């Protein structure tokens, strides 16, 4: 048995748990996970890998944006010529958060969700429309129940934390 202290990790296994605004651990922190090592599957046994990896997150994100693109409240918040960019940003963010590749931070730095969303009027109505489309996308990808519940809990908390304008 190791003398290393065991640190709680985020659902992604990518860092210690945090009480930050959206619940993000530091993506650069190396968690100490019991049994982690070169011969262990602790690093690859993440939420991301358990639900199907990139294929699942791409399906989720594309389904989400198919709804957003037609939504009268949400669509105007996105540049018409950058739907693929929006898809890439959300997909890589979610993949990283849930223990997948760190592509998002490697390309864009720390997520800083509140700062990145500040220029947009995120009202309770916009939050509710965002959640509607994300929940519909989750319904379609049909994650196993334990993962589905974790994902829905996270998006609900994150969406509420990003409201920056009352109607």
Low-confidence stretches: 1-43
Count of strand segments: 0
User: In the CATH hierarchy, what is the class of the domain at 47-161?
Assistant: Mainly Alpha
* Second CATH tier, the architecture of the domain at 47-161: Orthogonal Bundle
Helix and strand run? HHHHHHH
What does this structure look like?
The protein contains seven helices and no strands. Residues 1-43 have low confidence and may be disordered. α2 packs across α3 and α6 runs antiparallel to α7. It has 167 residues and is an all-alpha fold.
Entry keywords:
167 residues, Globin-like, globular, disordered N terminus
Overview in brief:
By secondary structure, the protein is mainly alpha-helical. 49% of the residues lie in helices and 0% in strands.
